[in-house]
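Summary for the steering committee. One of the milestones for this cycle was to obtain a three-dimensional model of the protein with adenosine-5'-triphosphate bound, which we needed before selecting residues for the alanine scan. The sequence and ligand used are listed below.
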Amino acid sequence: MSGVPGEPVLRVEGLRTVFETPRGTVTAVADMDLSVHAGETVAVVGESGSGKSAFAYSIIRLVQSPGRVAAGRVVLGGRDILPLDEDAMRDIRGREMAMVFQEPSTSLNPLMPVGAQIAESILLHEKGVTKAQARTRTLDLLRLVGIPAPERRVDEYPHQLSGGMRQRIVIAMALACRPALLLADEPTTALDVTVQAQVLDLIDGLKAELGMGVVLITHDLGLVADHAQRVAVVYAGRKVEEGPVEQVLADPTHPYTRALLACRPDPWQDVSEPLVEIPGVVPPPLALPPGCAFAPRCVRAEPACSEIRPTLDAIGPGRQVACLVASRERAAA
Ligand SMILES: Nc1ncnc2c1ncn2[C@@H]1O[C@H](COP(=O)(O)OP(=O)(O)OP(=O)(O)O)[C@@H](O)[C@H]1O
């Protein structure tokens, strides 16, 4: 990918993704902006149903019917990819951006040796590469992602590998053509805690080595602290807060971010004590209040919050928040 100097690898502007359902139009993603630079991991955090996956699928243009991207721009290396036809997109997927999904089995063909699947991706995207060269590159990739005994593993089938090894294979496939952007949608949710850390460390190492930008989709703020440089918190399809990870975690501004942080399990907490939960549930997408979608659950909500939708206001370098109360307090301070 050529890229434009100073331009982020990915720039999303005003993205809106909707699902047309028999009961009405569900807006899964609304007015989303996000930039990711080379060598940076930006985490997108929110509860289940907040639109994180719809956001990632929109970027790589894999939203399935009845869903569709209804508005916005997705600029990859300086080029808006939303108007491109499907042939051009197929060329971009895998070569310029790649995605790692939550469940490794969804990305792997159970009937094909794992090495052949990686080699196929190389042969598809790179003209002039011979089968022998693709196999050598595949073995290098297996080494890169830490697969032991790659000469033996390369000819094994997915079911012969553990879940952690399968996710490493998926990452190897995603990285086969050295994409500029990696979208990782809950890449470790299906894995044991120790394997989770290994896979995320692996993505961190490869990001530094290949100079990729990474979008890390997760509901786990613990992972954000260790693996991302910036974080965007989403609620009911909208970004409610964004900023550098250490600032947002140390000084969260939006009441939803504060509530998410308060709910993090404390490893030192007595196991007999119940975990804290955010009261209430995410409002049904067809019945969002006209104002702030978090207002019905918010401990700081004022009457105006249910009526007026807050805009995303800049509250410091690289920091934004969409909250009437927080913005007013920051302005007064
Ligand atoms: N096929 C579909 N038809 C209708 N609505 C959908 C469809 N897929 C997703 N949605 C809606 O889009 C919204 C966002 O869903 P999405 O899966 O992106 O959330 P998420 O934050 O990734 O959740 P999870 O962590 O559980 O995957 C939800 O309100 C969901 O109901």
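Key point for the committee: The two ends are 45 Å apart (CA to CA).
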